[in-house]
Design a protein that fits this description.
Shape: globular
Number of domains: 1
Helix content: 25-40%
Strand content: 25-35%
Order of helices and strands: EHHEEHEHEHHEHEEE
Low-confidence stretches: none
Distance between the termini: 25 Å
CATH superfamily: Gcn5-related N-acetyltransferase (GNAT)
Number of strands: 9
Mean pLDDT: 97
Amino acid sequence: MDLMITTLAVRPELARAMDEMPDTWPEFILEDLVGWANFPRIAVEFPEYVLVATDPDGVVVARAYSVPFALEAAGRGRLPGGGWDQVLLWAFSDLRHGRTPDTVSAIEITVAAGRLGQGISGRMLAAMRENAVRLGFREVVAPVRPSAKHTDTEAPMEEYARRTRPEDGLPRDPWLRVHVRAGGVIEAVAPSSMTVSAPLERWRSWTGLPFDGEGPVVVPGALVPVHCSATHGYAVYVEPNVWVRHRV
């Protein structure tokens, strides 16, 4: 498929179409409070780090968000266990305090529903790497959400992320495999990359599940079980991601 991939800074008129692009994210994953507060700011504060792909008809078929941050700032130096949430907080803290960024972190690469399985995600990852180079960076990191982990919620992420195919040694997980094929190296697990905590009635509305017991609940689209406390009226989902480092 012929795609035109550019930054939102170059084509700001596509912002609304990007937001309205149909996707396959589980409803609950959009309720992470750090993301809720900060994700919409990326297009406003960092449009040159946002990529948008259109097909020959001008339809938006994919988007890719990233942010610059100072990994080597005092008190940091290593990729955080807080993963996606933490790197968002770092990026906007660095912007506010005028710190010079040294690293780009992927935040989201999403392909439109109906356009999956066409190799677009890999092309967006390549474009993100190229954009980072254009902006003067030498490293891109990504708190990767493995695309098939939801089929094995009980497996520890550390073990799951290291599973490889016998025929070529590449990761079994399709999205991790795309990153490694692109030159990425799996570095660490971010055990608390995203957190969604809400009253049980909200979990019921998001999932259609009863949430009427104590203990873990397997939720479609979740990478690990959701912890439910019917006694206290809430449930908490803490999602692990996998840090992948790309030298560019």
